[in-house]
Amino acid sequence: MTEIKPRADIVAMDKYHSPQVDVAVRLNTNESPLPVPPEWIADVRSAVDDVAWNRYPDRSARSLRQAIADRHGVSAENIFAANGSNEVLQTLLLTYAGAGRTVATFEPTYQLHAHLARISGATVVSGQRDSDFCLQESEILRVLETAQPHVVFLCSPNNPTGRLEPRRNIELVIANAPGLIIIDEAYAEFSDWSALELVTEHSNVVVTRTFSKTWSLAALRLGYAIAPTRIVEELHTVVMPYHLDALKQIAGERALSYVEQMQSRVAGIVHERERIAIGLEKLGIDTWPSGANFILFRPAVTGAVGQGSGSESVWQKLLNAGVLVRDCSTWAGLDGCLRVTVGTPAENDLFLKALRVAVGKGE
Ligand SMILES: *Cc1c(COP(=O)(O)O)cnc(C)c1O
Question: Which atom of ligand 1 is nearest to the CA of 218?
Fold first, then answer.
């Protein structure tokens, strides 16, 4: 028997994963540290009894999509929902990218954009942000003109830098891109502006959102796109039939009746984010303004910062103190950088204390 080999381009790929280490304070995957309202859990519990479990679910997830549409003041035909915004992105790429097509990203950004684009068979062209992780107009125009990409990704607030994409940059992309423009807004509610109003029926603009971060529902696996009707129709051709199970449809819809609770959790996290930013500043550590629930920072110690750069790196010292952050130091353009997710006030205190020690400014 000859051993079967995956596609050569798959073999060549980096494996995308965030290490799940068992540790007291987990600040590495941008989850919410706060639980969902207990009322929502009761809603889901009673919904289990109401599901016709022998039947396929509503294939078009009509009621869920209507509830999402109501929240954004659009119509249900403008909403495509799937199992996490990652599945939304994958479906967009299967529909508009694929073999022989080109996808543009501006690095550093969310690694899954390029990864999913390559899995679809597309060629990825990477523009570069400047040393402060801002995107220059000349770079936008250079990439669009030379690559003529079928799909362009922007991420605002950008993961892992935290930076918001200024409106003028998004408008410049829209004015010059020949294809689809995907704006990944996984963290939108943590910031004070969104590109949502730039999605119009006659545009090629799609905004994606998720329940994983602001809604404290990473375990639910639910995300969606707000897009022109014709694009949503194409996505429904590509996605698996009945991809959203019945319980998820109800659970997602019910979550949307707890908007106020979501907003107050988000306000608390934003407050903590600013407290962490001040703490980092006091330690003399480089950070960048974040519109999300995490902060990228660069501890100014010589040499060892991340996992691979020495046994007593800052990352390792934090881990030894029971605090897991994301090591971004080996990612292109992120030399020496770590990313911390905002946790509960107590977790953030532990993080700041452990960091003070790790950079040699505490006992
Ligand atoms: C976390 C994250 C997602 C993932 O969303 P899911 O809905 O959990 O699949 C998408 N985009 C960005 C930029 C993220 O950081």
Answer: 8
Nearest CA among 3, 26, 9, 67 for reference residue 344? 26
> What does pLDDT average to in each consecutive run of 10 residues of the chain (363 residues)?
88 73 92 97 95 97 98 98 98 98 98 96 97 97 98 98 97 98 98 96 98 97 98 98 98 98 98 98 96 94 57 86 94 94 98 95 76
pTM comes to 0.95
- Cβ-based neighbour number of residue 56 at 10 Å: 10
DSSP string, 55-84: S---TT-HHHHHHHHHHHTS-GGGEEEESS
Provide CATH code, domain 38-257.
3.40.640.10
Distance 146 CA to ligand 1 centre (A): 29
Q: Can you give the residue ranges of every domain in the chain? A: 8-30+260-358, 38-257
Q: How many A from CA of 47 to the centre of ligand 1?
A: 26
The alpha carbon of 86 and the centre of ligand 1 are apart by a number of angstroms equal to 6
Q: Look-up: residue for tokens 């090629």?
A: 204
The domain 8-30+260-358: what is its CATH number? 3.90.1150.10
